[in-house]
Amino acid sequence: MTEKVKPTLPNAQTVTAVKHWTDRLFSFRVTRPQSLRFRSGEFVMIGLMGDNGKPLLRAYSIASPNWDEELEFYSIKVPDGPLTSKLQHLEVGDEIILRPKPVGTLVHDALLPGKRVYFFATGTGFAPFSSLLRDPETYEKFDEVIIAHTCREVGELEYGRQIVEEVRNHEFLGEIVEGKLKYYPTTTREESPKMGRVTDLMTSGEFFTDQDLPPLDPATDRAMICGSMGLNKDISAILEEAGLREGANSEPREFVVEKAFVG
Ligand code: A2P
Fold first, then answer.
1. 143 CA to middle of ligand 1, Å?
2. pLDDT tens digits, one per residue of 48-89
3. Which residues pair with 227 in a beta bridge?
4. DSSP letter for each residue of 154-190
5. How many angstroms separate the alpha carbon of residue 177 from the centre of ligand 1?
6. How sure is the predictor about 8, in pLDDT bands with cuts at 50, 70 and 90?
7. 6: Cβ–Cβ under 8 A, 6 or more apart, which residues?
8. Which of 195, 207, 231 has most ligand 1 atoms within 8 Å of CB, for mutation?
9. Are 128 and 43 in contact (CB under 8 A)?
10. Burial classification of residue 82, based on how many CB atoms lie within 10 Å of its CB (0-12 exposed, 13-18 middle, 19 or more buried)
11. 118 pLDDT exceeds 50?
């Protein structure tokens, strides 16, 4: 039985590129419906037709910026995951289902104006920041943008590292981000230049001294968090301890949280 979807799917989009980063991680790009508008950092439901003939959909952050002609997604491969076990076999020309109703809290509208924004990610939680880091609005709103990414192994940082490099070398963005963008990758289970959970590095102060940053200040600092439940909880606690409050679309404050989705 083929796992490929039939071209008669409602809301079908065509895969234009697939890249495997590690045994556990891959990214892919699909065509973008002309009518789809979204705010960088939002997610949509995407998926495939299940064996029972019903759509099998999961929430995926859009990893591409809102000016991109295509949509990019960054995914884990869960060996027994109902969706990702199939999705990881996608090839160029295949179709996926995309429900064009973007939502989410990791958006600029949910933060009060500030001087500095911190993006905290673990694993595939980098995806919404891949969008926000490529959105000029991020650099119009903030003087300093710090992206911290913690993964188990060095190879798992590669997608994010290349996005940061792309932004810095981009013909338009490069100039805008010059001197504004700080990148703080760490690993926890494989040797790398910076080891440890970002939470521990923040608590010890190393995170701030390494990057020449002042301690957290609710008057100037904003943050977005996207990772495992543990990361979300632990960073939230550190931010709240420093006086930052969690916000939402309906009530912008100093930080917002979204869990990294796994399907
Ligand atoms: P660790 O190896 O110490 O568990 P996972 O692959 O399990 O989603 O984890 C991705 C990365 O997030 C790992 O490097 C992991 O570190 C780290 N991590 C997990 N929980 C937390 C947490 N509560 N705070 C900070 N980092 C975390």
1. 29
2. 998 888 999 999 999 999 999 999 999 999 988 889 999 999
3. 259
4. GGGGHHHHHHHHHHHH-TTHHHHHTTTEEEEEEESSS
5. 28
6. low
7. 49, 95
8. 231
9. yes
10. middle
11. yes
